[in-house]
Amino acid sequence: MSAILTVTFNPALDMTGSVSALQPGDVNLVQNYTLHPAGKGVNVARVLTDLGATVAASGFLGADNQDPFAHLFTEHGIADHFLRVPGVSRTNVKLVEKAGRVTDLNFPGMAVEQADIEALTARLLSLAEHHEWIVLAGSLPPGVSTEQLTTWITTLRDAGKKVVVDTSQHALRAAVEATPWLVKPNEAELAQCLNAPISNEQAVLLARGEQLFNQGIANVVISRGVDGVLWRDKEGWLKAVAPAQSVVSTVGAGDSLVAGLVSGCQTGLSKEAALCRAVAISALAVTQVGVGVRNDEDVNQLIEKISVSPVELSVHAE
């Protein structure tokens, strides 16, 4: 089984704090907090290792605060191929309220130079020789254009790699133009990508997702929070919904979903089995702070409770 490569262009140290209820414009007392290495691709790599995959990770990493990341990679057996660049990787702040609402303060990250981009490009091409599955996840740091993202995706796709993309806003639009193997927007990200009105009606979401599929993206996955996940491939649309969980934090749930999908596809699970497993992993992620599969038995038990069914596309959907 080939190794999986995850690429995080804009990693971060995530500071997650708990507050009773956020009071904008006032002093907020944080009850407790954690600080850990993150970034969407880093989170995906972390979950994949728990699922038994052989994982390598790359991207840009600030040389001045790399130690927590290096420790994480060593601890979990993730092959470290990050390009160190001068400066510090950003710190993002996530405030989790008792009711479950999360407020993200995501900073832009350190700027990278053209020489760094060229060095990372050479590294990705070298790594691609030994990795069939490549996950590009998260935002772009200052200095990296959406055109560069399109070039990376196109190059890897043309090399026969299964490129999975999880990003948002302008980066997602650029990624879609390059037709990767799989994209995973949530409802709001899908609407932004297509410059279409945001609607959580399933028929509308299916029609929007169908647009991406018809552009040549083989797998379109739409995450909908408590309303489940929709997946379109050549077999049609499939929907899976997990039972409601006691939410501690939703941070990392989408990354856990991506890891579960890639793991399931790589190991040859059927579409239904891969989706159920991924949704179970994602659902359990909201019951904890930080990512990681802590108990395989919990995942297996939740899989049995997931509702999964095919969905027909309405010809009247707009």
UniProtKB/TrEMBL annotation:
Keywords: ATP-binding, Kinase, Nucleotide-binding, Transferase. It comes from Salinivibrio kushneri. The keyword Acyltransferase does not apply. One of its GO terms (molecular function) is ATP binding. It holds the Pfam family PfkB. GO terms for cellular component: cytosol. Residues 19-293 form the Carbohydrate kinase PfkB domain. InterPro entries: 1-PFruKinase, Carboh/pur_kinase_PfkB_CS, PfkB_dom, Ribokinase-like, Tagatose/fructose_Pkinase. The keyword Transferase applies. It comes from the Bacteria. Catalyzes the ATP-dependent phosphorylation of fructose-l-phosphate to fructose-l,6-bisphosphate. Belongs to the carbohydrate kinase PfkB family. Gene3D superfamilies: 3.40.1190.20. It catalyses: beta-D-fructose 1-phosphate + ATP = beta-D-fructose 1,6-bisphosphate + ADP + H(+). One of its GO terms (biological process) is small molecule metabolic process. This is Phosphofructokinase.
